């Protein structure tokens, strides 16, 4: 209660100070300042219009007006942060298809960094993953055309195309001296949001993305595991969020809620300090309170960090692995009618303990590094959100930044992080952080 009162008082004090400053300013000066700002804005827009007309009239080739306008809009948005962008009608439709869990393409989650397309993660069982594209790769050219000078949306559009058609990507990979040429055959990407298996007495669930299907798929996986393993023999669950790039906020809330009986899951805060949205869990733990370990690595971003942060703060699960990507910003999709949509960063995520995810990521309770094979040494490092140019600096971002290695072995027997989780759940190993103690959870009051 003391903490709550302190925070409220601090907020009131700051607000009162701001009001006092405003009230000492003559009203006439305020009006003049507002008019001056508006006039300056219109002057800048007039400059844009002048440049636009001169390009149309004098450029060596006749430019495409639509592309000029879209590029100008995207230039404005990408100057804000790496995740804000303009989606034309086609791209907006593609995004709607993706959130349904089925889309056409290569199967990679990407962002723009250093004027190149950076691979955040290849999705499981997709053409890109099968062709050897890795998290942390930089795509420098697409079918021979350089990526520099393209917007992220332009690059994505070029990588999409008819099913069964090949595309050649030129990739720079850390630790490799020469560019790598990779041929990927486009296909329909049908992402099964949750895959599960039973490891004798432990239920293993891998969540690859947060689409409209994720929550239902998770519930089905838990039900299937319960039917396969009697309750008195089931030691617990592993929730694998490694290489999960994120997705829908409501699905992250639903997945967290599946394991929580009560309490806040996540809050979002916008520009206005009063603009806070809170998402709470409902009664009922689908896992019946069985021990839970959550796996994360440098490829775990956004919605997957919400889940890991909620379960960690409530001491419902122990988080195991390496520091997550650190994308703690909320993108709101604003429809623009037939013209497409605006993807705009409007808020930041905060865990139940009030910690900002942005540029910080989730620090595991149990840090277990995944060894890299000799051929991958020094190649597969995800630097995280904090290393992206123009990113929003998080309130709790540190000099060490966010992100970590994002390598996951193909064979479970080689997966050190999974094997460590299994050993802990079976009591073969011990760690002070496991099992976590919910009664010691330090949550925001």
UniProtKB/TrEMBL annotation:
It holds the Pfam family Peptidase_S41. Keywords: Hydrolase, Protease, Serine protease, Signal. The keyword Signal applies. GO terms for biological process: proteolysis; signal transduction. The keyword Signal applies. GO terms for cellular component: outer membrane-bounded periplasmic space. Residues 92-160 form the PDZ domain. It comes from the Bacteria. Residues 1-20 form the signal peptide. Belongs to the peptidase S41A family. PANTHER family: CARBOXY-TERMINAL PROCESSING PROTEASE CTPA (PTHR32060:SF30), TAIL-SPECIFIC PROTEASE (PTHR32060). This is Peptidase S41. The lineage of its organism: Bacteria, Pseudomonadati, Pseudomonadota, Alphaproteobacteria, Hyphomicrobiales.
């Amino acid at each position: 209660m003391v903490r709550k009162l302190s925070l409220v008082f601090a907020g009131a004090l700051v607000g009162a100070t701001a009001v006092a400053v405003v009230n000492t300013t003559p009203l006439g000066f305020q009006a003049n300042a507002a008019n001056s700002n508006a006039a300056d804005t219109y002057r800048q827009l007039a400059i844009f219009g002048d440049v636009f007309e001169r390009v149309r009239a004098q450029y060596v080739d006749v430019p495409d007006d639509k592309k000029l306008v879209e590029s100008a809009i995207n230039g404005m948005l990408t100057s804000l942060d790496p995740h804000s962008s303009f989606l034309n009608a086609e791209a907006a439709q593609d995004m709607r298809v993706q959130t349904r869990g089925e889309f056409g393409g290569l199967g990679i989650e990407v962002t723009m960094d250093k004027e190149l397309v950076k691979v955040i993660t290849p999705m499981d069982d997709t053409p890109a993953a099968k062709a050897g594209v890795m998290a942390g790769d930089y795509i420098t050219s697409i079918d021979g055309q350089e990526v520099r000078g393209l917007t992220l949306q332009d690059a994505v559009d070029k990588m999409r195309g008819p099913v069964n058609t090949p595309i050649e990507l030129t990739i720079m990979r850390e630790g490799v001296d020469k560019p790598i040429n990779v041929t990927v055959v486009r296909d329909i990407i049908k992402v099964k949001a949750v895959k599960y298996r039973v490891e004798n007495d432990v239920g293993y669930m891998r969540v690859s993305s947060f689409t409209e299907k994720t929550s239902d798929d998770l519930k089905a996986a838990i039900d299937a595991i319960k039917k396969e393993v009697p309750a008195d023999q089931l030691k617990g669950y592993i929730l694998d969020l490694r290489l999960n790039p994120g997705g829908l906020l409501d699905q992250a809330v639903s997945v967290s809620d599946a394991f929580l009986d009560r309490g806040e899951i996540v809050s979002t805060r916008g520009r206005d300090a009063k603009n806070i949205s809170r998402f709470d869990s409902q009664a009922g733990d689908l896992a019946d309170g069985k021990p839970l370990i959550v796996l994360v690595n440098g490829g775990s971003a956004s919605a997957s960090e919400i889940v890991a942060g909620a379960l960690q703060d409530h001491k419902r699960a122990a988080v195991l692995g390496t520091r997550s990507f650190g994308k703690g910003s909320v993108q709101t999709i604003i429809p623009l009618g037939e013209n497409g949509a605006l993807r705009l960063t409007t808020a930041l995520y905060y865990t139940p303990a009030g910690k900002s995810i942005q540029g910080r990521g989730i620090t595991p309770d149990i840090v277990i590094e995944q060894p890299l094979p000799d051929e991958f040494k020094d190649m597969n490092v995800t630097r995280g959100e904090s290393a992206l140019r123009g990113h929003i600096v998080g309130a709790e971002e540190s000099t060490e930044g966010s992100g970590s290695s994002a390598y996951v072995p193909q064979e479970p027997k080689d997966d050190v992080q999974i094997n460590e989780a299994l050993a802990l759940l079976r009591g073969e190993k011990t760690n002070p952080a496991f099992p976590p103690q919910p009664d010691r959870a330090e949550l925001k009051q």
